[in-house]
Design a protein that fits this description.
Length: about 350
């Protein structure tokens, strides 16, 4: 017999129960603590607005459906978007329609508010559920990898059990905290404007100084660093996060921001960063044929096919349909758009 439950909007006093549900259903985050500070940063300090959230309740909280607000640019248009995140159902109440019910309610709310599309990066287990509810599997954004210590990487890949370690941040010395980058606002604004032009008519995140501050300076327990050449960030900036994966030292290149005609300088910048930090490997993403992909290739990165997260989209408006949001070639995403959430 299916349990009775009511679906309603999330309320502020639901936080403790919702966090307990997330811990029970999803466990702790690999790179972050799933605590109140992270919850508030993610859903209520976002410069794009507060998240849309619906809960299933029956005395306690049985399920959660959260849509994180986002904004994309494509040509002269702004796309109002939400990202499907933090889906959770109490383990004792799965397979009773809670996920589909909460999803339908939250999607309807997004439509009423004029949201153009829903996007997310579901894992292999949850992907079929999204496809049944009308999402389209757009594909995998192209990953690029630069291996700096091939012998060590090969040894870990060949003998994963011997070298397995808990994932998490590592002790590599930073070059500059991201806060230092954000203190250069005038230069950074010019850089963001040029970087946006380089993305052409692709669908890309509407980046601003306030967005970068939220995403890379305010996230609890997630240390991000930045690197640029010279005294000011005038031609290229890398924003990155050090990490440990399977015992390997990884650099996640979250953002590569470029001025026009700066691919060669950006390539040198990323090479210098790798030499200074000495990770085992570095990973980034950039679409085929883009200036950002050229910069990565000049820095010694190589594309890795068929790896990376699945990008799925549900189109909600004629505008999102008109700009072909369900076509991978239309997207220009960074790893900062894909990781953590």
């Amino acid at each position: 017999m299916s349990p009775r439950f009511s679906a309603r909007a999330y309320q502020a006093d639901d936080e403790a129960a919702v966090l307990a549900l997330l811990h029970g259903a999803l466990g702790g985050g690999r790179a972050f603590d799933r605590n109140s500070a992270f919850w508030q940063w993610k859903h209520f300090q976002n410069p794009f607005g507060h998240s849309l959230m619906t809960v299933a309740a029956n005395g306690g909280i049985l399920g959660l459906r959260a849509f994180l607000r986002w904004q994309f640019l494509v040509g002269p248009h702004r796309l109002s978007a939400v990202r499907a995140v933090d889906t959770a159902t109490h383990p004792d109440y799965r397979r009773h329609g809670i996920f589909s019910t909460l999803t339908a309610i939250t999607v309807d709310q997004a439509k009423r508010e004029g949201i153009d599309l829903v996007f997310n990066t579901p894992n292999r287990a949850s992907l079929p559920g999204y496809l049944k509810l009308g999402w389209v599997n757009v594909g995998k954004p192209r990953l690029w990898v630069k291996v700096l210590k091939p012998t060590r990487v090969a040894r870990v890949l060949l003998f994963p059990r011997v070298h397995a370690e808990v994932n998490g941040t590592n002790d590599m010395a930073p070059i500059a905290p991201s806060e230092m980058l954000l203190s250069r606002s005038p230069n950074l604004e010019h850089l963001l404007a040029d970087n946006d032009c380089l993305c052409g008519n692709s669908i890309r995140t509407n980046r601003s100084v306030s967005f970068l501050k939220w995403r890379y300076c305010s996230a609890p327990t997630l240390p991000y660093y930045s690197y640029w050449r010279g005294s000011e960030p005038s031609t290229a900036v890398a924003i990155f996060r050090p990490n440990r994966r399977r015992g390997l030292k990884e650099i996640i290149l979250s953002e590569l921001l470029l001025r026009r005609d700066a691919a060669a300088d950006a390539g040198a910048l990323v090479r210098e960063m790798g030499d200074a930090l000495e990770p085992d490997y570095m990973v980034a993403t950039a679409p085929r044929g883009s200036v950002h992909a050229r910069a990565l290739r000049l820095a010694g990165f190589r594309p890795i096919p068929r790896l990376g997260p699945n990008l799925t989209v549900r189109v909600l408006s004629p505008l999102a349909e008109r700009v072909s949001a369900d076509c991978l070639a239309r997207w220009h995403l960074s790893l900062g758009d894909l990781e953590v959430f």
